Amino acid sequence: MKKRWALLLAAFAINVQAAQQSEAEPLFKDGKGYYSYKTPLKISLPKDKVLIQYFYSYGCDVCLSGDDYLKNYAARHQDKVVLQRSPAFEKGNAFSARMNATFAEYGRSELSDLFLFDSAGQKPEHSLTKSNQLIEKWLLKHNVNLRRFQDLFHSAGVEKRVNEDVQRYKTYSPPMIPMAILDGKYILISNTLYNDDYTYAVLDFLVDKLQQEREVK
């Protein structure tokens, strides 16, 4: 009987210890929910708000979901965050940047979001990022003049916008896409941006953390 009680007490002690460790373990930490630059980037930050820089590419499923979650979060927390969205240059590919810039120069910036949506989840043979014919069909569907769009695509105005995006991309040098960077310090990638509730929880944690860090300074 004594041996039995000893075993029960030992098991209880182990359970208590595990519970205490669980309570002490933070819900999010570097490597769990988010990552960090070894050295924070020296960038211009908005006053009293956290800057969320987001890099995406057309034809990227997770980029679409991450984009939606970040836009929703920024809309709900306009007093706390500023969201800046930029096209990526994976392997030197400027397609997303040039298309995004052309939409802007054309005066139809809203088409960029729509193209991101329609280009996600497509099979290679139906990809809006691979076929000029499908791109032209898509543009016509949305009442875009092909000749004007093509002229703008190779214009100086688009080139200027693309160069600005290139410089921003070089500043952050994201090793993967999608990627969101908060205040040039904390990083969110696809293993966080795939789920809305999880993304919002991590963002709440990091925004509060960054605000506390600023107060300490």
UniProtKB/TrEMBL annotation:
UniProt signal peptide: 1-18
Superkingdom classification of source: Bacteria
Keywords, ordered alphabetically: Signal
PANTHER family noted in UniProt: THIOL:DISULFIDE INTERCHANGE PROTEIN DSBA (PTHR35891)
Protein name: Thiol disulfide oxidoreductase
Organism name: Muribacter muris
